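I am writing to request your help with a piece of structural work I have in hand. Thank you for your consideration; the sequence and its tokens are set out here:
=====
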Amino acid sequence: MSARVILGAALTAVGVAVVAGVSLGSASSVGSIDSLRLVADDGQRWKIDGEVDTAKARLQSVPGHNAFWFAWSAFHPGSEVWGDGPIPTAAVRADLEGKCTVPCEEIFQGCSGRDCIPPLDSPKMVEADGASYLRDFDMILGVRTAEGPRAYPHNILWWHEIVNEKVAGQAYAITFCPLTGSGLKFDRSAFVRGKTVRLGVSGLLYNSNLVMWDRETESLWSQMRLEAVAGPEMKAASPLRGVLEMTWKAWKTLHPNTLVVSPNTGYARDYRRYPYQDYRTNHSNTFRGTNPKPDARFKNKDQVFGVVVNGRAKAYVWNSVHVKLGDSGIIEDEIADVPILIVYHRPSHFFHAFDRRIAGKTRSFSLD
């Protein structure tokens, strides 16, 4: 199925050009994130993050995450790239002695040992106006809970990488790897049958990506490979869940009642300072080489939003989407027979995927 690309009404109102069947508009016409609405063909409306406007229930997120291109292409060889050809297929062999699902020698020491980067457990939260360490353009990972919305800033995660939470009975972990630019949410109660795990930073990396460990079984979990790569739970799938990633300004605009991680973590860190110098923009620095090597069609640190559905992966490269959609729009697509809706708002650095099936029927959408 080919993807259908739709631009918001805010763009079409000022006049558009049509290139290769796709409407393009000027960036200056893009509405603010809180004014945009997703509209289904039956008239139901949602805010751009899937929160109810006139609809009966929230849109269901399809788990996806942002990452640097070099990492996505190394972890998902053979997968599709929206608007482009597939990433070349490459086999990743398991360890010959069966101790790892990847070559054990490629899981290497990144820092001195377990929890050398200290994770946070149920950190203190403050209201939005108490987060003076955050600037509007800083990025957060947002979660909606039964007790209200919560924000986990990159600024905190640069220094801690994992936050273990339990809110209203929901045990989850927010994880972020600065070296691959990947922020993911996991269900801590679904890693190991009958147990709720506490995740930590193992000190190890695979393809420059965070390798986590759980204290309950001491298994090693590759964040982006989405599985245990070694230990008693080896080959078990990681229980990935949806998370909302956007700028702090966008999140607090959509969720003014949000709580956010306090800078009073018990650790002496400068949470306004990015600790990796020019790493985010230096395309030649991937910390270590990857196996397979990155696909060379895009630059290593180009931003990608990737979706994995039933073992099938697809990447949406930010710059390619911007060429087709301008600064705001939606894409209707299908991955592994699941109809999905990709929502994009570049000014807020927001990219997200939703399931287009509502009450058992696949809907078409517009952005108003």
